[in-house]
Specification:
The structure is a single chain. This protein is mainly α and 166 residues long. It has one domain. Helix content is 73%, strand content 2%. It is built from 7 helices and 2 strands; from the N terminus they run H-E-E-H-H-H-H-H-H. A two-stranded antiparallel sheet has the order 1-2. A hairpin with a 2-residue loop joins strand 1 and strand 2. Helix 3 runs antiparallel to helix 4 and helix 3 packs antiparallel against helix 7. The chain is elongated and about 60 Å long. The two termini are 28 Å apart. It binds protoporphyrin IX containing FE. Protoporphyrin IX containing FE (HEM) binds next to helix 2, helix 3, helix 4, helix 6 and helix 7.
């Protein structure tokens, strides 16, 4: 068990004074947290399609990869819009370094996801090996961005909307 040094830090005391409740939510459910599962799942599905295409040579997996990479990118954009709104609107989220670490990892992920879709649309013959390499990189960055997003929720309590009665 590590000691929580933030208890003694005057800076952390100030940071903790600000609310971290979600500003972009439906009936108490943050929209960003609802959306992020889709790009993450589709990024993994694209990697799966590439691996199956590599092993079988079946062009079905090539077509599946175009669709999953495209939806991974566009649903990632949708999730990022909700996440960016949280970041800009909620002071308690904006002043936490972890929020910016997560945002930078997520924007890098979006850039890789866009390139991955572009390769499939315009250069399908390049899916092996370049598309596969981009899929592996996307999966790694989905892990990094997701890990930091999870830390915001589970370590900092960001986006939790616990009613005062509970
Ligand atoms: C610039 C883009 C983004 C910003 C500014 C951002 C910001 C945030 C914020 C403020 C939270 C805390 C929860 C909330 O307030 O809703 C969060 C959570 C999270 N984010 Fe992002 N996000 C961005 C993009 C993404 C993307 C593209 C992904 C994954 C594909 C992602 C994955 C996650 C995950 C997994 C969580 C934890 C949700 C949970 O466990 O309920 N984020 N993000």
């Amino acid at each position: 068990m590590t000691e929580d040094n933030s208890k003694h830090s005057p800076v952390m005391q100030k940071v903790k004074e600000h609310s971290v409740s979600s500003a972009v939510a439906v009936a108490g459910h943050p929209i960003h947290a609802m959306l992020v599962h889709f790009p993450i799942a589709l990024i993994m599905a694209t990697l799966g399609s590439d691996v199956f295409y590599w092993f079988t040579g079946d062009e079905f997996f090539l077509r599946a990869g175009v669709w999953s990479a495209g939806f991974a990118f566009w649903l990632g954009v949708a999730a990022s819009l909700a996440g960016t709104a949280e970041l800009l609107l909620v002071r308690g989220i904006r002043i936490r370094v972890g929020s910016w670490t997560h945002a930078i990892a997520a924007m890098t992920l979006l850039a890789i996801a866009a390139s991955n879709w572009g390769v499939r649309l315009y250069f399908p013959e390049e899916v092996l090996p370049h598309g596969l390499a981009l899929s592996v990189l996307s999966a790694i960055f989905a892990g990094v961005a997701g890990w930091h997003g999870g830390k915001l929720v589970f370590d900092h309590g960001v986006g939790l909307m616990v009613s005062p009665d509970e």
